[in-house]
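Why should sequence recovery work at all? Because a backbone constrains its sequence more than one might expect. Tight turns favour small or flexible residues, buried strands favour hydrophobic ones, and helices have their own preferences. The token representation captures these environments compactly. In the example below, the structure is given first.
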């Protein structure tokens, strides 16, 4: 039976996962060996198995996905190609990721844009991923501190997502805050969050950029639905602290 319209708070109470925060670990080009990836995997299985009420998505490099797909972890990829099949040396297709139990894929990350990915390439990747049943985590954000954030993310939304059904998550990642140990203050990040929520009220909006155990819960307090975490997600102690801070 369907719940009556207008009764959303009771729906959320009955189905707490609807309101569940999400933590996405972006491992980038780490760890350097399969042996270390296996070690991280066994630590993570331990930690994630004990954490309730938090969706934890691990995005290791492609080459480690087959091993990770044998675990119970929720998986994402860090990139994907836009074609479903064909002669494209070195590329990975959306169906390949699906077959390795990936549910999510990070797209539009500034580190890939720096290598030459433009709006039209990212857009094609988003469309193909959605078509294949993957959930893209689309990264947007200004390059430099002090730029007109709203103007920039408005342009990004138009260029990347116009006309695409909102079957994606958004990650507000000010580029200057990524890997810099200079996180965007939560009160400032909140402005981008509110703007994004106006256009995408039902979409999960994450914050990313120098998240650590000392600031993670602050972003949730100002209203973000989750976090995209780079370097801190490779340090199991620190990552566990973050997860515990979010479930406290
Ligand atoms: P960081 O990376 O947490 O190391 O700043 C975030 C990201 O690249 O998504």
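From this structural description, the recovered sequence reads:
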């Amino acid at each position: 039976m369907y719940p009556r319209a207008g009764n959303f708070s009771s729906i959320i109470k009955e189905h707490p996962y609807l309101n569940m925060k999400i933590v996405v670990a972006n491992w980038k080009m780490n760890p350097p060996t399969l042996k270390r990836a296996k070690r991280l995997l066994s630590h993570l299985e331990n930690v994630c198995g004990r954490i309730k009420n938090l969706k934890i998505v691990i995005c290791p490099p492609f080459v480690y996905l087959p091993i990770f797909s044998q675990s119970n972890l929720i998986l994402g990829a860090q990139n994907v190609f836009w074609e479903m099949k064909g002669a494209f040396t070195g590329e990975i297709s959306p169906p390949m990721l699906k077959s390795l139990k990936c549910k999510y894929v990070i797209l539009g990350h500034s580190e890939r844009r720096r290598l030459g990915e433009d709006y039209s390439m990212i857009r094609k990747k988003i469309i193909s991923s959605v078509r294949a049943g993957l959930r893209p985590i689309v990264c947007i954000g200004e390059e430099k501190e002090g730029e007109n954030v709203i103007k920039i993310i408005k342009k990004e939304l138009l260029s990347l997502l116009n006309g695409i059904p909102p079957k994606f998550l958004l990650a507000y990642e000010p580029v200057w805050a990524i890997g810099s140990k200079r996180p965007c203050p939560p009160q400032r990040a909140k402005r981008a969050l509110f703007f994004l929520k106006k256009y995408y009220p039902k979409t999960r909006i994450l914050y990313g950029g120098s998240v650590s155990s000392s600031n993670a819960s602050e972003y949730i307090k100002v209203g973000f639905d989750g976090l995209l975490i780079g370097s801190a997600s490779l340090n199991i102690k620190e990552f566990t602290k973050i997860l515990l801070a979010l479930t406290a």
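A few observations help interpret the result. The chain has ten helices and eight strands.
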